[in-house]
Amino acid sequence: MAQITEIAKPSMYPGAARPGGQIGAMLIDSGKISAEDAERIFLLQKAEGLRFGEAAVRLGLVTEGEINAALATQFDYPYLHSAETGVRPEVVAAYEPFSRQVERLRAVRSQLMLRWFTPEQRVIAVASARGKDGRSYIAANLAVVFSQLGERTLLIDADMRRPRQHELFNLSNQTGLSTALSGRDDGRGKRIAGLVDLSVLPSGPIPPNPSELLSRASFGDLLERAREEYDVVIVDTASAESGADVQTIAHRARGVLMIARKNRSRLREVQALADSVQSAGAAVVGTVLNVH
Q1: What pTM does this model have?
Q2: d(Cα 270, Cα 74) in Å, to the nearest integer?
Q3: Which of these CATH numbers, 3.30.70.270, 3.30.565.10, 3.20.20.10, 3.40.50.300, describes 92-290?
């Protein structure tokens, strides 16, 4: 199992070295500060060797959130504000991309890019032994951080028993994977406003036969088309305790990221899941411990 390690956090306030720099100009243009405020910021910045954003926050003229929003614009980094969208706060990577929690998600992303994703291998399933281990939460946030890297990302909700992705991203679930696999829809992902490189294919209406639908050749065809159209495809799955869906998905995806939850997951159940994934012909790419 892969060991997930953290990566160093970049400086929080890169950007303008003077009031006329990009950060300062964006704050002025957006009405957050005045030209006189910018001069005060510049004087403090020069006196104490601070970055422009640090000095602005020190003076109480802007918040860290406002600086982060300006940075997101400067570096073309997709970033949502709670008033803009119905995306749930649980999708923390979309709202707080500079938080420590999201840094850990980016560390997982880095490990996956090193260990798994290549031009030939673009799909990974996210699986857990039990429900409520945080599988859907991690799948959603990983999809966001991959899209923020500029990777064309598709998140597929293949949990057709207790689906969550349509709730997390505020999408209609009238059509989705189940309707695509039954030949009633084209199975195209839905673009997420404000996250330009992210699309989500919800589960669709809950069918009476999810295992049978996932066993159809149409599911393999859908993943092959996704491999051609996207750089990264993340597949959320039903928990192993709810059925054998994860083995079918693992076989098609070829790789699995396993999720375990602190003080809840049992080692023998996690090991049993790893064994079943490998018996399906897929690789266990790594394991993430959800501490929340």
Answers
A1: 0.77
A2: 43
A3: 3.40.50.300
